[in-house]
Structure formats: structure tokens, C-alpha cells
Amino acid sequence: MNGAGAGQGQYGAPPPAPVLPPPAGRSRQGGAAFTVLVSVAMLLGAGVMALVLLGSGAPGALVVGTLLAALPVGPLVACFLWLDRYEPEPRGLILLALGWGALVATAAALVLQLVGQFAFDRPETFTAAISAPVSEEAVKGLFVVLLLVARRHEIDGVLDGIVYAGMVGIGFAFTENILYLAAAYMGGDGAGPGGIEGATGTFVVRGVFSPFAHPFFTAATGIGVGVAVVTRSRFWRVAAPLLGYSVAVLCHALWNGTAYFDGGQLFLLTYLFLMVPAFLLTAGFAVWASTREGRMLARALTDAADRGFLARHEVPWLVRVAGRRAARSHARAQGGAPALRVMREYQQQAIELGFLHDRYLRGTAPADFARRGQAKVERMAVLRPHVVFPTAAGTTWTTQPRREGGR
């Protein structure tokens, strides 16, 4: 087996050409079609929500609602990005997920609920407890399903499903909170005292005690999609997303239903003894999955190094988050912005190769894994002569930076 950059093994030998050929047409067309579809849907959703918001006739209330609704967004996004630290998803897709939740899902759910309410003449309690959870979780989860179909290579497992679903939920909660907070600010019609007092009370309930609700609900669908990606069972490839969606609807229905029935007396009990423990359990699972992802990436890249796809001494600078930062800082100090760009791309290519190689080792590799792996190995071979690591080739692991998290 040859050394790093030789590219011998499962993915073949890289050609000497300095520039890689473009990706296969099918992959590029699928990604472009997905982006266009989501962008058009967001434009339509923005139009619907603009009509709804402008129809309120209270610009001052909308400003207050928007400012308060934006407060939980930053911390929530930061939490999901932290979970996503080992293989950061494309920021463009993260923004699309947020936009889908904020514009498409809210508009579609609102239209579906209005149609259902008038067509079937159901009371508000039925809409809140049944219609809203079914429709909202369907349109929120649709983004993750579309991503799975059009850009399957972006979802490597359960954690990716949680991240994308969580971002959709954050976007949805943001727009929904604007409506609730604006209504609370205006007051009247049983909405409370109005003004800042009313908006603050609603913010405490929705923005302080339960900002996680929508991301948590939709994360169940994301977990189901993630399981479908990594499982070998044909049954679970179909059943897991459906089961995840069912769990999302059930949790959402319990949340809404207890707030409406029996005067809301069961809501506090449901919140304290069901929703909070379930959220903490899901959060703990996500943290465990993130930690496991780091160990998996180290294992996969070490095996890839043994097969000659990269040098073994590079692995700590590619896997550990602290090591990545140190390598980037060193590259910038040695070669400026161009060297930093090369280091970033090399790390990203290696990380994606590691996740793909792990699926190959577990026997769940996608049908196009050889082509994708070959492209990454070739690209790394082109970049490698220009990569500046903090230590020279041949340095042992014992002299590398301290392992993150004790690994």
C-alpha cells in the first residue's frame, strides 16, 4: 500500500490532472432542481405570509413580535450547529432549511388548516389537537424527505436528520411566534391585557420555557429519515420515516391538546413530566450521536489512511475540532488566505470521505459510493502538495495536539 495521496485501494488511483472534472450530471441536476424547487416554494410561502402579516393591520405589533421571536433563534441554531461540528452541513442548505420552516411550512400549514376547518366545519380544539400537528409536521418533515431524495449524499445518518429537521423547526417556530406575540401585543378577544405586558407573558411561555417544542417535534421525523439512510433493511427504509413522523405528530398533538382541553389544567403536568423529559432524552441522544460521530470519523479515516488514501499523521488534524482549528491557523500563518482555503477544502474532502468510507465498512454504502469516493481521493491528491500541516509528515500520534473530549 502506497502512502498518502497515492490513492491506491478501493477508490483507485488519482489522475495527474491539476483540475478535477465536474461532478456527474445527475448529481448536479438533482441538487439544482432541489434548490430551485425550495426557492420557488419559499417565494410563494413568503407571499402568503406577507399577506397574513400585513392583514393584521398593526405594524407596531409586528415589529415587537419579530424582535421577540428572533431572540431564541440564535441560541437554538448554535446548539444544532454544535451537534453538527464533525461534519458541518453546507451553510446554504442550513439556510434553506430555516427558510422552509419560516416561510413554506408555516404558509402551507396555515392554508391546509383553514381549508380543513371550513370544509369539515371542525371546532378550534380539533384544529389545534389534530389538524395542526398532522399538517404542520407533514410540511416540516417534507423538507428532509426532499433532501433525502434529491441530495441523498448530504444525509449520512441520524445526526444529519436531526440537524436539518431541527433547523426547519426553528424557522417554523420563529414565524409562528411572530403571529402569537403580535396578537398578544394587540390584546383583546381573550388574548390578554395587550401591550408589552401581554407580549412579554407570551414570550416567556413560548420563547423561554418552550423554544425547543417545534425543533423537538420535527427532530423525530429527522431521526426516522436518518435511520432510513443507514439501515440495511428495506422495511425500515420505508417504515422509519413514517414512524418518526407519527412520533412527531403524537408529541405535537399531546402538546397542543393539553393546552386546550380541561381548561389547560393538564398542560403543566404534560410539560414537566412528559415533554421536558422527552426533550432531554432526545437532546442526550443527539449529544451521544455527535460524540459517537467523532469516534466513527477517526476510525474510518484511520482505516482509509491504512489503505493509502491519506497519511495517518493527518487524521488528528482532520477529526478533532480543536485540531482542525489549529491546522487552519497554522496554514494561514504560513501561507495566508490561499493556504487557509486549501486547508479548509482538504479537511472537508477528507471528512466527507471518512463518512462515506464508514458506510462502506458497515456495508451500507450508497450505490454511487465508488464514484464519489474516487472524486474525493482525486481532489485530495490535487490539494495535498499545497496543504501545510503544523507538523511534518511522519510525526507520530503521540506528538499531536491533545485529543478532544478525552478521545
Automatic annotation (TrEMBL):
Biased composition (Gly residues): 1-10
Domain of life: Bacteria
One Pfam family recorded for the sequence: PrsW-protease
Chain intervals with Pro residues compositional bias: 13-24
UniProt signal peptide: none
Keywords: Hydrolase, Membrane, Metalloprotease, Protease, Transmembrane, Transmembrane helix
Protein name: PrsW family intramembrane metalloprotease
